[in-house]
Write a structure and sequence with these properties.
single chain, alpha/beta, Cytidine Deaminase, domain 2, 2 domains, nine-stranded mixed sheet, 11 helices, elongated, binds NADP nicotinamide-adenine-dinucleotide phosphate, binds zinc ion
């Protein structure tokens, strides 16, 4: 039942954020009488959708919920009250709410109402599914995933900056899913000037119900052209900078311009950017930048996951790599990764890896 609740939760992965994706199954004597998931932020939670489906059959059933039911009045009334009113006999949750202010309160309220409560079933799987939501609430920054398209020999652009397209159409369609699950997609001004990217989700690849992730440009000296393609597309564009040389013109063109400088570096401050994005509700942040920004993020130990699409080409030596770093001289300087998934996407390879502290 909990495994089913997890699969239901995943149906909300493109649409529930900034809320967590949550699934709920109501069962009686081994039969499912209702099920639901949180489909869209601002609309009914998983428990309410499951109760609606079950109707009177909810009475005396056990609710399997991936995340602790809410006790607070958000945009919708608390699910704890709805579960009590429906006469649920038992509640099994995988994970307590990671948001410290409410953690454990939902379970206590259910127990106080005489409902049998269990927690921890499939907790690890739900922690993985909600990693971004947990990161935002516990670390105060989004889960940060860097996506890179490279050749077999690790090149991401020719020396003159040409990089479109290194990977095939299937890999580029696969990236749409990474964008769709992210609250924001971030790049550096170097990529904006070289490629004028759109960074939008194509609805044909991933149904986001018309919502677009926030597009973010790191641009210390505010060199983003007012004619940048991103500013003309559906969804919002946010530019972080340290100077205000033509902020008004960019705002008039539809961008939100925010000064978040690091005085010493004379550059946009990465920790402050991540903090600000978390405060805007970004659970998962996808970075699609060139080697300069990717290298800085790696150096600052802010990268959680790498998704590398590797095309079956050799690009040679007059090229750019994946990460610009300070001169590393010994093998001891290298950064260790742990590969978590490898698969073929069309003619390309997709390698997913975590950045770790150990070799
Ligand atoms: N193959 C791929 O997956 C892929 C993906 C994207 C781009 N590309 C290629 O990458 C090339 C562009 O790479 P790039 O390295 O020049 O550009 P980039 O990494 O996209 O952007 C770097 C710029 O971001 C700005 N920035 C602002 N705050 C920063 C901070 N705290 N740390 C680091 N940078 C910060 C800096 O300019 P300021 O100092 O002016 O702010 C910096 O020069 C293009 O050829 C593009 O085609 C390849
Ligand atoms: Zn709820």
């Amino acid at each position: 039942m909990m495994a089913r609740a997890l699969r239901l939760a995943a149906l909300g992965q493109y649409t529930a954020h900034p809320n967590p994706m949550v699934g709920c199954v109501l069962a009686k004597q081994g039969e499912i009488v209702g099920e639901g998931w949180h489909e869209l932020a601002g609309e009914a939670h998983a428990e309410i959708n499951a109760l609606r489906m079950a109707g009177d059959a909810a009475r005396g059933s056990t609710a399997y919920v991936t995340l602790e039911p809410c006790v607070h009045h958000g945009k919708t009334p608390p699910c704890v009250d709805a579960l009590i009113d429906a006469g649920i006999a038992a509640v099994v949750v995988a994970l307590e709410d990671p948001f410290r202010k409410v953690s454990g309160r939902g379970l206590r309220a259910l127990a106080d109402a005489g409902i049998s409560v269990r927690k921890g079933l499939m907790r690890k799987s739900v922690e993985k599914q909600l990693e971004g939501f947990i990161s935002r609430n516990v670390r105060g920054r989004p889960l940060l995933r860097v996506k890179i398209a490279a050749s077999m020999d690790g090149c991401t652009a020719m020396a003159d900056g040409q990089s479109q397209w290194i990977t095939g159409p299937e890999a580029r369609a696969d990236v749409q899913h990474l964008r769709a699950r992210s609250g924001a997609v971030m790049t550096g001004i170097g990529t904006v000037l070289a490629d004028d990217p759109s960074l939008t989700v194509r609805e044909a690849s991933a149904d986001t119900r018309g919502r677009q992730p926030l597009r973010v440009i790191l641009d210390s000296k505010l060199r983003t052209p007012v004619s940048a393609r991103m500013l003309t597309l559906p969804g919002a564009t946010l530019i972080y900078c340290c100077s205000d040389n033509h902020g008004e013109a960019l705002s008039a063109a539809g961008a939100e311009v925010v000064m978040l400088g690091d005085q010493e570096e004379g550059q946009v401050s990465l920790p402050l950017v991540l903090e600000d994005l978390a405060s805007r509700g970004v659970n998962e942040l996808l970075v699609e930048a060139g080697p300069t920004l990717a290298g800085k993020l790696l150096e600052a130990q802010l990268v959680d996951e790498l998704v590398i699409y590797q095309a079956p080409h050799i690009m040679g030596s007059e090229t750019r790599g994946m990460f610009r770093t300070p001169a590393w001289t010994g093998l001891a300087d290298r950064r260790a990764l742990r590969i978590t998934d490898v698969r073929r996407v069309g003619r390309d390879l997709r390698i997913t890896a975590r950045v770790t502290d150990q070799d």
